[in-house]
Design brief:
Helix content is 50%, strand content 8%. By secondary structure, it is of the alpha+beta class. Strands 3-2-1-4 form a four-stranded mixed sheet.
Length: 266
């Protein structure tokens, strides 16, 4: 069993041979060439090689993250007394927990699934940027005593016309307003383009039918349905509703001990 604590530039490796308690640990650079050398080195270790001849698999274990997918980080057991965290200890911990069958593997997305998820998340980022830039522009105008009082919808046609008509006496103030206004325009245009692309993604054969099913639920439009699909990918991997609620985080918390019962929110 090979536990790996993976970072952008380095990988801490802990090799745990079958039936042994001693761990061989070392660190390598996170490059394809160094990883290939490490795999060859580990495969050639005496105790590991004996196990391979007995048709036992050589397992590489690392946490799911931007560098790859294997073990769910949030489900790794943590001991209350373990207060020392280093890359080496993390790698060794993964190897020992894997041997004890106490780790939970995740579902590894395919390339197309991950690409679709990145597109939807890019739209979510654009939505966050739009809200931030709009608030920044509104607060800037409020400091100057400029408040939109028309009863029409904010960020509608009339509101945009009112914004565009704003003029300031001082050049520096006008430049600050123009920069904030331009930022809102750019993020709004980016969000519009990404929303169109996500709508097009909904017509992909892999998503068209499940998206149409999800849209039957009240309050779920196409964008929400696509978001659910790309994040969940396969609903059938959740055998019961509670397990899906655990995945989404929509479950209440509880911290009870002895005669005391304490329940928290989601």
């Amino acid at each position: 069993i090979v536990g790996m604590d993976v970072h952008k530039e380095t990988i801490s490796v802990a090799v745990l041979a079958p039936g042994k308690d001693r761990v061989d640990a070392f660190k390598i650079q996170n490059t394809p060439k160094e990883i290939e050398k490490m795999v060859k080195k580990v495969s050639g270790l005496g105790e590991i090689q004996i196990a391979l001849k007995k048709e036992e698999a050589l397992h590489f274990v690392y946490e799911a993250g931007p560098c790859g997918y294997v073990i769910a980080p949030g489900l790794i057991p943590v001991r209350p007394t373990d207060r020392v965290k280093t890359d080496r200890r993390d790698a060794e911990k993964l190897a020992r927990l894997f041997r004890a069958d106490e780790l939970t593997a995740i579902r590894i997305p395919e390339g197309a699934e991950e690409a679709a998820r990145d597109l939807v998340r890019a739209r979510e980022d654009a939505l966050t940027d739009q809200t931030r830039d709009r608030n920044r522009l509104t607060q800037f105008l409020l400091r100057q005593g400029r408040v939109y009082t028309d009863n029409t919808v904010l960020w509608g046609t009339k509101h945009w016309a009112w914004l565009k008509a704003q003029k300031f006496e001082f050049k520096a103030l006008q430049q600050a307003f123009d920069a904030a206004y331009r930022a809102v325009e750019e993020t709004s245009e980016r969000l519009k383009d990404l929303s169109t692309q996500v709508e097009e993604l909904a017509q992909n054969p892999a998503y068209k039918t499940p998206v149409s099913y999800l849209r039957c639920f009240k309050g779920i439009n196409t964008l929400a349905a696509v978001t659910l699909m790309v994040e969940v990918q396969e609903f059938r991997r959740f055998h019961k509703a509670p397990s899906f609620m655990d995945f989404t985080g929509l479950t209440s918390s509880e911290y009870s001990s002895g005669g005391k019962k304490r329940q928290g929110g989601i």
